[in-house]
Structures are given as C-alpha cells and as structure tokens.
C-alpha cells in the first residue's frame, strides 16, 4: 500500500510491521521512513503525540475474516482492526484507509464487526464509507476483491462514483509478464520448482482455468485474461500455473485441450504434463501485484511469495490514495457525529 500511496502523492513518515522478513524488505525500499518493528499492540504508545498527519492507512491481518482461511472471529489477528483504530484515535489524522478482505464488508456474520468499526470511527469524528473494489477494474492484471473502510474528518464522504475516473481495463497476463521471457532466463531468473502432476480426481468446471485439474490448489492462468487472486501461500503447489508455449509462442493451450478431453470422456490415463507447464515465478507475481520491477524483496523464495501474496496491489492502493487525496484537497465544512450515523446506520440514531 505504501508504494501506491506514495505514487498518489503522500509522503509516508511512519510504518509498522510485525513480520521480521517483511521489515527487512520494507527497510530496503523505504529508507527515509521510521519503521516500528513488532506487534502493533505493544507499540501503541509510540504513536502518542504525533500530530499534523493527513492519512493513516493499513491492512490489518485478514485471516480471521478470509474465506481462504477459517473465518475465525476468535483468531487474535481479527482484533487488530480495532488496534488500527486505536492508532487513529491517538494520532487523529484527517483521514484513514483500512483495507481488508471482501468478506468483512459483505458477509452478514461479520456485520457486527463492520458496524463496530464504523461506530468507533464516528465517535472520533469520522464519516466512514465502506467501498468494495476489484483490482482488475483499475488496470491490475488480477481479479482481487477487497473492501476499504475510508474515514474522512472534513465532513465529506466517498462513493463508488469517485473511483470512476480511475477505471482502466486490466492488461492480460501475456501483456503484463511476457516481456520477462521464459523462467530461468536472465530477465526472469527465478524458477518455482514445485512439480505439476495431473489430479487423480480432477474437479471440472465450465472453464479450463477453474476447478482442480492438477495437484494442489494452484490453478492454471489464461494468458489472454487476467490472473485469479494471488494467495500468500504461493511457493509450492498452490502457486498458479502457466503454459509457456501458450504464453510466448501463441501455441495451442495444453490446459484447454486437456480440459476438453476430460469433458468429452477421453482416456487420459497415460497422459503426462508437458514441460511447457510450470509455476509462476516471483518476478511474474510481483508484476501481477503491480510492484515496480525494481522493488527489492528480502528473504527466501517462499517468504518473498508470502509478502507478494499478502500485499495490496500497488496500483489499486494508488487509486484509493488519489481519491482520498482529492477529498482532502477540497476543504469542506465539518458535519456532526449524528449526521454521520444517519447516513449509514439510522438505527443508531
């Protein structure tokens, strides 16, 4: 998110991260920023006395709310959305942006969490908008749905209309990464060695790029479309799959032919996965998340994949930052706390 917010025109002064490897990556790329390392709850006092801040932004861990995880409200990471708000309370910025998985904003089982977030922010004088966005609608070659809680102190609020001017067609996987060349080449040097084998009991869907055709949960990507959501569990057999012949040579898609053979009941008992099929590399995943190509990552390949998969696409963060900055640049008279609540939760009046 820092990369996108900086591109949108913000200067990041202070950051917090608990993961030691991610801290080293952050320090490599953001040398002028004060990085507070460790558990946010154990470092809250360090935010006391900070003033004249326009924006606090962040993405508290989402595992407790994610459909990719156990969706466990008892997960201690779930309460970090309120630790985030505690930082907002201490610093009192002009605006805040809190990112999380779509489920936190969309599912009824989390509605009380969503309402409590908004209620606490209202009590601090913020008018909150809950905005759900898909990265592919803003030039990111990946379908990645996320929710953003955006609070403004100047009395204004944000709607989906504010994002329309930033809508942009997503490039295809081919357009995004083919310039890197084959995995293992000088310009795409990292290879993901996780093997690809045919699933013993394939799960078929209408599309060849859905279902479960291969071992693990890494699905094949269609070079002529955008990527599915990149998970933080990449690095092994959950890493997405690409067909180099299809990607670089515009050859026939082996995945689509195999899917067609399965649908038509053909005997595939002796079929072997061709060498042209391989897992996505970290350099390609970095581009799909719209990191700058010169962005440096610290750690093993597995830890780098985790950092990439945990990230908000830089270009999506830039759009959110640009919308917020536009609002902050427009001076609007403050409204009262009751008016905020009447917009979103009239039952709280």
Summary of the model, kept short:
31% of the residues lie in helices and 14% in strands. By secondary structure, it is of the alpha/beta class. The strands form 4 sheets. The protein has a 4-stranded mixed beta sheet with strand order 3-4-6-5, sandwiched between helices. It has a two-stranded parallel ribbon with strand order 1-2.
* Name of the CATH first level of the largest domain: Alpha Beta
Sheet of most strands: 4 strands, mixed
At the fold tier of CATH, the topology name of the largest domain is Rossmann fold
Low-confidence stretches: 332-349
- Spell out the helices and strands N to C: HEHEEHEHHEEHEEEHHEHHHH
Give the CATH architecture of the largest domain: 3-Layer(aba) Sandwich
Our count of helices gives 12
**Approximate strand percentage:** 5-15%
What average pLDDT do the residues reach?
A: 89
Strand order of the largest sheet: 3-4-6-5
Percent helix among the residues? 25-40%
**Derived structural class:** alpha/beta
Active site: 62
Catalytic activity: a 2'-deoxycytidine in DNA + S-adenosyl-L-methionine = a 5-methyl-2'-deoxycytidine in DNA + S-adenosyl-L-homocysteine + H(+)
EC number: 2.1.1.37
Family: Belongs to the class I-like SAM-binding methyltransferase superfamily. C5-methyltransferase family.
């Amino acid at each position: 998110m820092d990369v996108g917010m900086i591109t949108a025109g913000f200067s990041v002064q202070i950051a917090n991260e608990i993961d030691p490897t991610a801290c080293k990556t952050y320090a490599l790329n953001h040398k002028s920023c004060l990085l507070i390392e460790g558990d946010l709850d154990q470092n809250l006092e360090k935010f006391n006395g900070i003033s004249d801040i326009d924006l606090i932004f962040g993405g508290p861990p989402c595992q407790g709310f994610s459909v990719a995880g156990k969706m466990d409200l008892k997960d201690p990471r779930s309460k970090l959305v309120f630790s985030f708000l505690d930082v907002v309370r201490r610093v009192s910025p002009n605006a805040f942006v809190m990112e999380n998985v779509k489920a936190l904003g969309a599912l009824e089982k989390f509605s009380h969490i969503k309402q409590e977030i908004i209620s606490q922010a209202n009590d601090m004088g913020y008018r909150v908008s809950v905005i759900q966005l898909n990265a592919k609608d803003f030039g990111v070659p990946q379908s990645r749905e996320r929710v953003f809680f955006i609070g403004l102190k100047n009395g204004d609020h944000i709607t989906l209309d504010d994002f329309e001017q930033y809508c942009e067609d997503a490039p295809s996987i081919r357009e995004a990464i083919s310039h890197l060349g084959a995995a293992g080449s000088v310009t795409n040097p990292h290879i993901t060695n996780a093997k690809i084998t045919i699933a013993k009991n394939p799960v078929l869907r209408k599309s060849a790029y859905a279902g479960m055709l291969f071992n693990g949960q890494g699905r094949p990507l269609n070079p002529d479309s955008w990527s599915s959501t990149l998970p933080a569990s990449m690095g092994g057999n959950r890493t997405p799959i690409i067909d180099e012949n299809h990607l670089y040579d515009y050859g026939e898609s082996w995945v689509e032919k195999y899917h067609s053979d399965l649908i038509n009941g053909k005997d595939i008992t002796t079929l072997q996965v061709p060498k042209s099929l391989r897992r996505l590399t970290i350099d390609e995943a970095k581009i799909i998340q719209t990191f700058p190509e010169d962005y440096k990552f610290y750690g093993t390949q597995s830890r780098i994949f985790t950092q990439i998969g945990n990230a908000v696409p830089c270009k999506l963060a830039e759009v959110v930052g640009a919308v917020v900055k536009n609002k902050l640049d427009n001076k609007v008279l403050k409204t009262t706390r009751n008016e905020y609540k009447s917009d979103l939760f009239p039952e709280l009046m």
